[in-house]
Amino acid sequence: MSLKETLEQLKTDALSKIEATQTLDSLNEIRVQVLGKKGSITEVLRGMKDLSPEMRPVIGGFANEVRDTLTTELETKKEVLEEAALNAALEKETIDVSLPGQELNIGTSHILTQVMEEIEDVFLGLGYEIIEGYEIEQDHYNFERMNIPKDHPARDMQDSFYINDEILLRTHTSPIQARTMEKHDFSKGSLRMISPGKVFRRDSDDATHSHQFHQIEGLVVAEGITMGDLKGTLEVLLKKLFGEDREIRLRPSYFPFTEPSVEVDISCFKCGGKGCNVCKQTGWIEILGAGIIHPRVLEMSGIDSTKYSGFAFGLGPDRVAMLKYGVNDIRYFYQNDLRFLEQFRVKG
Ligand code: DAH
């Protein structure tokens, strides 16, 4: 047989083997046998050295043609077999719709957010507006307009982080009182709002103090507001938060922006008033500061204090959350430790 005939033969054999094969493995074997380094085409080409110089390129060219044809055929068959394998696998695969889905680890809102939203809901139900103040505040609103002038000793308790002499991180949410009052149009009705948010103080951090914490400011201004309105409102709130059989008690206190000022206590929700570790054996738990708005604070905001009066209060949601959930260190709220936070996952 001439070399050309051998190549012809080799091509015919290989093509029929490729045609007949049904697996990727055997197809690969054919490829190695025919086209591999030690394969049959290489072997045939070794015989080229015995050819005349005129015949060499002819046979060489033909050998390349055979190699190209076979390479293409192998590739095409490979694609066919791969597709068949995929289809077979897909056919075997059935979807069990009763299998439980993969649970996605979605987060939960922070416990302080939950407590603040609970409080907001109570006030929304009472027809209050929720207003946001500024965390970076002017000395003017944070202190002056709250009746705390530059040399007032009440400033000592509320040192803050100053950006310059006039701008600071607010030490309480009370400045929003002045900002809201000066804008309010009483021809459109009374003013009822709460304002939740972060406040900042130069405090050394310990179990009950943090340089950053939260407050919810409350403010009502209308004609004829009295201490009775304040007490009734806070009673609704505190019963919702701590249980319907809670009682509340007002004790005289002092804040520069209210007159009179009170400290509000609730009867202990743990012992009901008998005395325990939560209420430090007193039967009462101090929960917030409040009072009747000082006439000067109303006047500084352009409100006629002979016509209008109001009450205000400042509540600490951190403290509410600590009491409600038995958290004994305020710093847990700010450390972002998932072991702590996940205990308060919202169910649903
Ligand atoms: N701003 C006060 C504080 O941070 C809390 C407070 C007390 C707010 C009495 C009030 C209030 O509105 O009436 O210590």
UniProtKB/TrEMBL annotation:
Cofactor: record remark: Binds 2 magnesium ions per tetramer.
Residues the entry annotates as binding Mg(2+): E259
InterPro entries per UniProt: aa-tRNA-synth_II (IPR006195), aa-tRNA-synth_II/BPL/LPL (IPR045864), Phe-tRNA-synth_IIc_asu (IPR004529), Phe-tRNA_ligase_II_N (IPR004188), Phe_tRNA_ligase_alpha1_bac (IPR022911), Phenylalanyl-tRNA_Synthase (IPR002319), tRNA-bd_arm (IPR010978)
Localization (cell): Cytoplasm
Molecular function terms, GO-annotated: phenylalanine-tRNA ligase activity
PROSITE patterns: AA_TRNA_LIGASE_II
Source organism, top-level taxon: Bacteria
NCBIfam families: pheS
PANTHER family: PHENYLALANINE--TRNA LIGASE, MITOCHONDRIAL (PTHR11538:SF41), PHENYLALANYL-TRNA SYNTHETASE (PTHR11538)
Quaternary organization: Tetramer of two alpha and two beta subunits.
Protein name per Swiss-Prot or TrEMBL: Phenylalanine--tRNA ligase alpha subunit
Lineage: Bacteria, Bacillati, Bacillota, Bacilli, Lactobacillales
